[in-house]
């Protein structure tokens, strides 16, 4: 008679089967009887779990109890890592943690499965989006899975370390400072040409460009300040009335003026919509959508459609290139990027600012190319 209590049809990725509760309790007792093992694990300042073949927790050190604010491990026995860490995908299917399509790109599940298969240690990074009490938070985790041979060859030792602060610092160093240096260099270039130019009209034109570049520099600084405030729940909105078409037109003019684009951008707008919201945040989100589309366009035309839909002003940015499925599954995760290390904050900030603070919605689809959609209330909901 099998001790498994789950149907394999309940998964889109890793096996869904679990052991019965009495078997789990027996495995947990096996570990606690080895007094030396729990004492050693409690010295380690990271979350340490022992998992069975079904990826269920049969032991945890005290760090996880402190993190979750619980008194004993009985409440955790039989659960999987994503379920105790409140991963947003862990309850999407009956099979639980590891059984959704999104789990196929989860570093934690991949490390566990690879270690079980190879019987060797495996290290990976896991980008976890957790939800608790209707509050969503993002974490970057370093995970380590290895056979727990000292206990039982069929068990897996699983260690979790929070590296979120390291990743945030990396973003500042590689993205924020990089952008600041680029823009500062542009300002310096304009000033240098102005010093050497004898033509007054040329100097006036260059001074205009330099002033616009300084505005960009200030906006880049403010964008990072606002993102930190948003993550801490401290961002204050500055509401005003503005034209949706006017906002987009100025963004497109900027791309054309500074020749940073390698494609044309078409604006489709039958009715100019007046929005009451935070114009700086709306512009930032739309600009992120445009920037991503232009970078991915491969020279093809990018289009942006503005229309009214059910009380929302909807911006739809489309380019002809499709996003690989692996990237689609991680598109809004903080620190994830297919453009290299230290990137990946743009789409995350769009989601955070557009939905949590502006009360709108952010989504994308990949039919005949890629379309990002941002809907913002015509009038801020809290007015």
Key traits:
383 residues; Beta-Lactamase; Helix Hairpins; Heat Shock Protein 90; 11 helices; 12 strands; elongated
- Give the helix/strand class: alpha+beta
**At CATH's second level, what is the architecture of the largest domain?**
2-Layer Sandwich
Number of helices: 11
Helix percent reads: 40-55%
CATH first level of the largest domain: Alpha Beta
Rounded average pLDDT: 86
Q: How many domain modules?
A: 3
N-end to C-end Cα span:
63 Å
String of helices and strands? HHEEHHHEEEHHEHEEHEEHHEE
Shape: elongated
Sheet with most strands:
5 strands, antiparallel
- Work out the strand percent: 15-25%
Give the C-alpha Rg: 25 Å
Looking at CATH, the homologous superfamily of the largest domain is PAS domain
Write down the CATH topology of the largest domain.
Beta-Lactamase
- How many extended strands? 12
Strand order of the largest sheet: 2-1-5-4-3
Contiguous low-pLDDT stretches (5 residues minimum) are: 340-344
Describe this structure in words.
This protein has eleven helices and twelve strands. The protein has 383 residues and is an alpha+beta fold. The chain has three domains: 8-162, Beta-Lactamase (2-Layer Sandwich), CATH 3.30.450; 164-236, Helix Hairpins (Orthogonal Bundle); 238-383, Heat Shock Protein 90, CATH 3.30.565.10. The radius of gyration is 25 Å and the shape is elongated. The model is unreliable at 340-344 (pLDDT under 50).
């Amino acid at each position: 008679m099998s001790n498994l209590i789950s149907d394999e049809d309940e998964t889109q990725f890793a096996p869904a089967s679990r052991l019965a509760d009495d078997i789990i309790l027996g495995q947990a007792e096996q570990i606690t009887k080895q007094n030396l093992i729990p004492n050693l694990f409690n010295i380690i300042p990271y979350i340490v779990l022992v998992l069975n073949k079904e990826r269920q927790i049969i032991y945890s050190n005290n760090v996880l109890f402190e993190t979750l604010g619980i008194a004993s491990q009985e409440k955790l026995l039989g659960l999987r890592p994503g379920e105790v860490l409140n991963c947003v995908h862990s309850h999407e299917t009956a099979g639980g943690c590891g059984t959704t399509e999104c789990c196929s790109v989860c570093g934690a599940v991949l490390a566990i499965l690879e270690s079980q298969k190879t019987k060797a240690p495996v290290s990976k990074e896991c980008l976890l989006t957790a939800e608790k009490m209707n509050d969503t938070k993002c974490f970057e985790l370093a995970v380590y899975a290895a056979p727990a041979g000292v206990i039982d060859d069929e068990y897996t030792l699983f260690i979790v370390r929070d590296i979120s602060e390291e990743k945030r610092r990396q973003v500042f160093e590689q993205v924020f400072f990089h952008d600041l240096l680029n823009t500062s260099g542009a300002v310096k270039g304009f000033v240098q040409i102005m010093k050497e130019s004898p033509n007054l009209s040329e100097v006036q034109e260059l001074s205009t460009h330099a002033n616009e570049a300084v505005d960009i520099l200030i906006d880049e600084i403010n964008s990072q300040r606002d993102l930190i405030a948003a993550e801490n729940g401290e961002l204050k909105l500055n509401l005003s009335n503005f034209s949706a078409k006017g906002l987009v037109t100025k963004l497109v003019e900027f791309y054309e003026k500074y020749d940073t684009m390698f494609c044309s951008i078409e604006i489709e707008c039958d009715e100019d919509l007046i929005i009451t919201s935070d114009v700086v945040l709306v512009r930032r989100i739309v600009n992120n959508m445009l920037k991503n589309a232009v970078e991915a366009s491969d020279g093809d035309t990018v289009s942006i459609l503005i229309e009214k839909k059910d009380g929302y002003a909807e911006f739809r940015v489309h380019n002809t290139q499709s996003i690989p499925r692996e990237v689609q599954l991680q598109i809004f995760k903080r620190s994830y990027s297919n453009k290299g290390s230290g990137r990946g904050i743009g789409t995350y900030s769009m989601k955070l600012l557009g939905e949590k603070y502006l009360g709108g919605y952010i989504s994308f689809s990949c039919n005949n190319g890629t379309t990002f959609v941002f809907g913002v209330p015509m009038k801020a909901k809290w007015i």
